[in-house]
Amino acid sequence: MKKWIHFLVLITIMFSFLLGGCSLQSKSTNTVYTTIYPVYSLTKLIAKDKIKVEKIVKDGAEIHSFEPSSRDIAKLTSSKAVIYLGLVDEWVKKPLEGTKTKIFKASDGIVFQNSDPHIWTSPELLKKMAKNIKDALTRIDPKNRQYYETNYNFVISKLDELDKKFQDVVSRAKRKEFLISHPAFGYLAKQYGLLQYSITGVNEEEEPSAAKMKEIIKLIRKKNIKYILVDPNENLPAVKSLAKDTGVKITYVYGMGIVSKEQSERETILSLMEKNLKAFEIVLNN
User: Fold this and answer.
1) Residue 204 has what pLDDT?
2) Of the candidates 149, 86, 147, 151, which has an alpha carbon nearest to the alpha carbon of residue 120?
3) What is the dihedral of CA 115, 117, 123, 129, to 10 degrees?
4) Does this model's pTM top 0.90?
5) Spatial separation of the C-alpha atoms in residues 264 and 257, rounded to whole Å
6) Is the model's pLDDT at 22 over the cut of 50?
7) Are strands 227-230 and 102-105 parallel, antiparallel or unpaired?
8) What angle do CA 253, 255, 261 make, to 5 degrees?
9) Mean pLDDT of 228-243
10) How many whole angstroms separate alpha carbon 63 and alpha carbon 60?
11) What is residue 6's predicted lDDT score, i.e. its pLDDT?
């Protein structure tokens, strides 16, 4: 009798596993997977309801240290296509070798500077990413070419508006430099002729050394800096200490290397960039 019970339990487990695998397969075959939030949000804005778009790097996770699980790999290999950024998510290519899943790089034609992945913080480079993503969606689903073209043109028009607003803010700004906790806006600084000072390196989890903090305090006093830009998703005790010691005020900005669940669900890369514009208007005029 016990043998029969063990046999039935084994059959049930195998059936559940196969059913789960089939479920994952059926869910993923019409899905385009992206890796990080900026690529995900931009792809969703262009694909809208024609293709289901998902992302692999979880809300709240840090892109520089993210490692995919075996379930993540299963999702990627059973998907219709994968769109990734490049530089920080090159891990996506290896498991897709030999599969039928198409793979596209959103940063094609863009040169990364100093191992900095944050190209999406520059409206100019974001437009290039949007074109690469639109071209990828058109190749994945050519019958809806015009639909993606229309959505892409809308995104470009919004980025052109954003670009003009940044140009206006910078042209009227009292200062052409800014202090930030994590240097996520180097590409934006280059586009608008600004100088970026940062507490840490490109890794969000990095803590500044005592020597670096001393250097930043000296900079704040020399330049009479009133504000520091901080991503609300970063946890840097050093920033609070710096604000207490020097009196600089914290203004939130969104680097989008880490995004919260709420931001991922309620915001888009365009709405977060509009919030960034307001933050820069404050720090450049005080």
Assistant:
1) 60
2) 86
3) 110
4) no
5) 12
6) no
7) unpaired
8) 90
9) 89
10) 9
11) 44
Q: For residue 105, which of 96, 176, 114 has the smallest C-alpha distance?
A: 96
HSE-CB of 275 using CA atoms within 13 angstroms: 17
Q: Is 105 left (phi over 0), alpha (psi -120 to 50) or beta?
A: beta
Quick one: which H or E segment has residue 32? strand 31-34
Average pLDDT over residues 257-285: 96
DSSP 8-class letter at 232:
T
Q: Are 135 and 81 in contact (CB under 8 A)?
A: no
Map tokens 């520089």 to a residue: 64
- Please report, for residues 61, 176, 220, 241, the alpha-carbon distance to residue 247 in angstroms, rounded to integers and kept in the order given: 30, 21, 10, 10
Considering all CA atoms of the chain, what is the largest pairwise distance in Å, rounded to the nearest integer?
85
- How far is 274 from 251, CA to CA, in rounded Å? 14
Report pLDDT for 19.
Answer: 43
Closest CA to 101 of 84, 78, 134: 78
Of 60, 67, 59, the closest CA to residue 94 belongs to 67
Q: Which amino acid is at 59?
A: D
H or E element that contains 83 = strand 81-84
Q: Which residue has the tokens 């999406």?
A: 120
CA distance 253 to 250: 10
pLDDT by residue (tens digit) across 90-117? 999 999 999 999 999 999 999 999 999 9
Q: How far is CA 21 from the centre of its chain?
A: 29
Rounded Cα distance between 69 and 202, Å, is: 24
Q: What is the pLDDT of residue 140?
A: 96
- For residue 41, the model assigns a pLDDT of 98
